Every structure is written in structure tokens, then in C-alpha cells.
Amino acid sequence: QVQLVESGGGLVQAGGSLRLSCAASGRTFSGFVMGWFRQAPGKEREFVSAISSSGGTSYADSTKGRFTISRDNAKNTVYLQMNGLKPEDTAVYYCAADRRIIRPTNPDAYDYWGQGTQVTVSS
User: Fold this and answer.
1) Which of 111, 93, 102 is nearest to 7 (CA)?
2) Are 8 and 19 in contact (CB under 8 A)?
């Protein structure tokens, strides 16, 4: 089993920045695809970004140019740097992981999830 713990959320003004962290434990971290998803109240969980075991990245269109995903395999941690935050970015952000994923934008593809961290962007 893989355990994931997110941190780094908070309240920021529009245009501000946050860096989310996801610490993983369990199986070999370097072999996993890691993803970030977010969910606002009453909304579906949506894809934000993902990074493969080889370092390839994917971003939702709404976050391109503003968000950057990265991973530090030595620390078993994945990061999401969020710049130029907008009120519509407000959501609970979840870290997800799996060893083998065909479509990393699909939340159903991930077996392991963190508890989420709240990001609130004020206008």
C-alpha cells in the first residue's frame, strides 16, 4: 500500500502563489505516476497535473503556464507550484498515485489518494 499526505494549502489573494507538497510512503516512489486533482464543492473531481516516473508532465489547459509539477524521488515527494492563482482555482487539492497508468488525466486510473489540502483564492 501507498500512503499519501498533502500539505501546503491555504488562503491567498488572487495573483498569489502556493506550493503544494505530497509526501509518499510505501512502495518505491520513483516507479509511480503521480497526479494532482482538485474538487470544489458540488463539482466533479478534475485533473490538474501529473508527472510520470520518467519525469514527463501533463497539465490541464486551465493551469498551463501557471502551475508546475515536479518530483523529488530521494524525498518521496511530489510538488505543485501554483502561480497566478485565480478564484476559480479554489478547491480541495488531492494527490494521487499509481504504478501503471494509461491515461493520467482520469481520476479512476489512480489507486492511491491523499486526504486533500484546501486552497482558497480570494478576489
Assistant:
1) 93
2) yes
Q: Among all chains, which residue has been given the C-alpha cell 490538474?
A: 48
Q: What pLDDT shows up at residue 20?
A: 98
The residue with cell 523529488 is: 72
Backbone angles phi, psi at 25, to 5 degrees: -140, 160
Q: What sign does the CA torsion over 86, 51, 24, 97 have? A: positive
**92: β partners:** 39, 118
Give DSSP secondary structure letters for 74-103: GGTEEEEEE-S--GGG-EEEEEEEES--S-
Contacts of 9 by beta carbon, 8 Å cutoff, 6+ apart? 18, 20, 92, 93, 117, 118, 119, 120
Whether 112 has a pLDDT exceeding 90, the answer reads: yes
